[in-house]
Hints:
Shape: globular
CATH class: Alpha Beta
Distance between the termini: 38 Å
Bound molecules: nicotinamide-adenine-dinucleotide, uridine-5'-diphosphate
Number of strands: 13
Number of helices: 10
Structural class: alpha/beta
Number of domains: 1
Oligomer: single chain
Largest sheet: 7 strands, parallel
Amino acid sequence: MQGEKILITGGAGFIGSHLCKKLLSKENKIFCLDNFYTGSRQNIKPFLNNPNFQLLEKDIIEIFEIEADYIFNLACPASPPHYQKDSIKTMKTSILGIYNLLDIVEKNNARLLQASTSEIYGSPLENPQKESYWGNVNPIGVRSCYDEGKRCAESILVDFYRQKKSDIKIVRIFNTYGPNMAINDGRVISNFIVQALKNENITVYGDGKQTRSFCYIDDLVEGLIKTMESNNFIGPVNIGNPNEMTVLELAELIISLTNSKSKIVHQELPQDDPTNRKPDISLAKLKLKWEPKVDIIEGLEKTIRYFKELTL
Ligand code: NAD
Ligand code: UDP
């Protein structure tokens, strides 16, 4: 992608700010739309003087007009404590937001990529998860505002594709981490690193035997751009790192990489916390020639350096 007009919703968030940076480096014109619910001005500060960067302080649930050729829809709180804080708003963000963006797609003949999620699979009964798996989601649980919102957005997008031939792409993002995560984000990697750097207790929820597979941000951004650039392929496609580990193993690794004096303590497991998660990425390898390159130690070391600067 070079010299294009690109709208990035949620552009001041963790993933959005990395995508802005990458696409600005290729001389694209970036419209970064954000309501700053979880995003931060600090994340986009380096771009504010770039003539190719324009900040639109807006909410995607309100109707708006813009001329763009490509849209990355990342707007949605992604951390469980944040998306559960105002669950009604979270659902509106996924549903009303996607209708508003599809209007822009129609008016501009634009292409839209939706940041969907591994939460589509809920607490999966299959491991690893392939795109063909329909999932195991509690439709009325505390996570459903996010899970069902993202599932419904996928459904709306595919109907627009079938009925109106809208140019859409769906990426199911698995747990991603890296610099620019908010210090109070509440997700596991940022929590553990901040706790370890402060020598505070590391809060493992439940017995810590639940698994996740963590992808470094640079790999994810490459996967998002490759999907957007692909032709005759709408997805859904899993983008993530299949390197599965338990939450307890992650806690021990972070303690060791930070030389921390922190002790592990166990806290109550949140309701409907998925027991396991690991992407099958054969489709991404086949269709996008994409696979992650950054291993967990290298990725954690970069992320620890970032949080060290914030916490010292
Ligand atoms: P984030 O919370 O850092 O970023 C989300 C951004 O969207 C924030 O800047 C926030 O202010 C903005 N936003 C939220 N609601 C909005 C609204 N109604 N209107 C305008 N802006 C709004 O989270 P992230 O990790 O960067 O996630 C970005 C996207 O990727 C989300 O859609 C999330 O569901 C998806 N995703 C992320 C992960 C991950 O591991 N990081 C995994 C799966 C899916
Ligand atoms: N978790 C934890 N301690 C924390 C934060 C999270 O043990 O301080 C666990 C959480 O219960 C889940 C896993 O880490 O099993 C990943 O949580 P996160 O909120 O990062 O993302 P999720 O994959 O659950 O959306």
